[in-house]
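[job 0412] stage=complex_fold ligand=2-acetamido-2-deoxy-beta-D-glucopyranose status=START
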Amino acid sequence: MVWSLSMEVRVALLLLLLTSTNVRAPPPPPSEPGEEVPAGSRGGRHRRRAFPGPYFHPSSPVNVTTQLGAHAYLPCRIKNLGNKSVSWIRNRDSHILTVDRYTFISDERFSAWHEAQTQTWTLQVRYVQERDAGKYECQVSTEPKMSHFVDLSVITPTVSIAGKSDIYVKSGSTVNIKCVINDALEEPTYIFWYHEERRVVEANSGYRLTVHREPPDTSIGTLTIPSVSMADYGNYTCAPASLQMASVMLHVLIGEHPQAMHDTNSAAASTTGSATSVGSSSPATHIHGRRAVLGVWLVTVLLLATT
Ligand SMILES: *[C@@H]1O[C@H](CO)[C@@H](O)[C@H](O)[C@H]1NC(C)=O
Ligand SMILES: *[C@@H]1O[C@H](CO)[C@@H](O)[C@H](O)[C@H]1NC(C)=O
Ligand SMILES: *[C@@H]1O[C@H](CO)[C@@H](O)[C@H](O)[C@H]1NC(C)=O
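[job 0412] stage=complex_fold status=DONE, emitting structure tokens
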């Protein structure tokens, strides 16, 4: 049998024997189910190698963590995909989300795209919600089908205002209200502040708004009121992008007395009450009015008595 081989083939075989002792072909990657190459095809009789089937790259992640409200990217690295299709399936309800570039769910937050250089099909989930957490299957249309699972974790940052839920400050002092966002994988794209129902802006208001990051996963938004006055009294709410809100009540002290909405005893309340927009229909106004009537009446009585 061997003797019937042509001279060229024998030379080729000899060369192969000589070189194979020193030069070894790299072993196939561990997870290559489609890589079986018929034994004879390596020997030189057939130079054309069988096309190896698709396989998942071992570096393709199995866990992805995303913050609530952010975008999640679930990569699926597939080698030798050839002309096979890639589907993304949500494990929870077996819903087919995408097939290749096409989205098969009415939820527009889901989409998939292919990156040729890295041979990656990525599922994107925009504005991640808590219920998006769970397993996702990247499925290749081989026969039988091949699957790679990615587990998506959704982290929900906590939003709170540092300190107590009521802040007492003296009129004229500087106040910093700090909105602390813990477990924040990324800084919020914005933090809105509200004083009562009105959005706080820096322009012409005297207020200062800053945001800074404290590694590894804390963001702090600060509202600074340089010189507190009665007009600053009230409820302050911090509302970071796509996260919960947190509120605090600011009380302004004149002397030692807290300036509260319905404080009818405080002399300061009567003198400066008109400067605050709050409590215009409070009992203080009525007492004010009655005192004025009483005053006019007394003056009248006195005038009458002296005549
Ligand atoms: C993925 O997460 C699971 C639990 O959430 C953990 O047991 C596993 O070790 C993680 N795998 C990797 C590769 O990080
Ligand atoms: C994929 O390519 C193979 C040959 O490379 C061909 O036989 C097969 O029909 C193709 N499949 C599709 C879905 O185009
Ligand atoms: C402050 O305002 C927020 C948002 O409007 C509201 O949820 C919260 O209950 C208010 N707090 C107080 C003490 O009024």
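The radius of gyration is 37 Å.
[job 0412] exit 0
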